[in-house]
Amino acid sequence: MTLAGFITYSGALAIAAAIPGPGITALIARALGSGFRSALYMSFGLVIGDLTYLTAVVLGLAMVAQTFGTVFLLIKWAGVAYLAYLAWCFWNSGISAEKIEAKRSNGGVVSGILSGLAVTLGNPKTMIFYIALTPTLIDLHAITLADYAVLAVVTVLTLIVVLVPYLALASKARWFLQSPRALKRLNRTAAAFMAGAALAIAGRAS
C-alpha cells in the first residue's frame, strides 16, 4: 500500500467513526452516566471491535470478492441501502436525550472494554464500513503483513483521535447533549455524512 492509500483509509475511517451511531451513542451515555474514565475504557473496546472487523476483512473478503463476485457486489449494494436508511433515520430522529439517558451505566475496566466490544461487533454501521467501503479503499489482494500492521496502527490512532474528544465533551457538556436544537443539528449533520457515504459506495460498487 502507498502513503496515499493509508491517508485515504484513515480519512474515511475518521468520518465513519465520527458519524453518530450505536457506538457513539453508547459512548456518550457512558460518559454522561459514569464519567470520562469509564467511557475511555469503553472506547478501548470499540477499538478492539474495529480491529476484529479489519482483520476479518483482510483475511477473508479478498477470497470472497474473488470467488463470489456477484455476492460481494450485492453486499456492497446492501451497504448502500443501509447507509441511505440510516441517513433517513437520523434526518428524522437520530440520537435523542431520552436515548442517551436510558443507556447510562457503570462498571470498571473489564466491563467497559467488553461493553464497547459488544457494541462494535453488533453495530451494523461498523459492519458496513469494513465490508462494503474498505474494499473500495484498499486493494485486499495486495495487502502484505506489514501493510496490515500499519493499517491496524492507523485504525487505532484514528479512532482514538475521533472518540476521545467525543467522550471528553460528553463528560463535560451535558447541557449541549440535552439540547433538542443541538441534537437536531448533530443528527442532520450525521444524516448528510451517511448519505454522502452511500453515494460514494454506489459510485464505486461495480
Task: Explain what this protein looks like in three dimensions.
The protein is mainly α. It is built from ten helices and no strands. The chain has helices at 3-18, 22-34, 36-67, 69-92, 97-102, 109-121, 124-137, 145-172, 174-177, 180-204. Helix 1 packs parallel to helix 8 (145-172) and helix 3 (36-67) crosses helix 7 (124-137). The model has no long low-confidence stretch (mean pLDDT 74).
Order of helices and strands: HHHHHHHHHH
Main sheet properties: none
Total number of helices: 10
How would you name the oligomeric state of the polypeptide chains in this document? single chain
The chain-level structural class is mainly alpha
Any idea what the shape is?
A: globular
* Unreliable stretches covering 5 or more consecutive residues: none
Strand content: under 5%
As a whole number of angstroms, the C-alpha radius of gyration is 17 Å
Question: For the residues shown, what is the average pLDDT?
Answer: 74
N-end to C-end Cα span: 22 Å
Strands, total number: 0
Instruction: Name the helicity range.
Output: over 70%
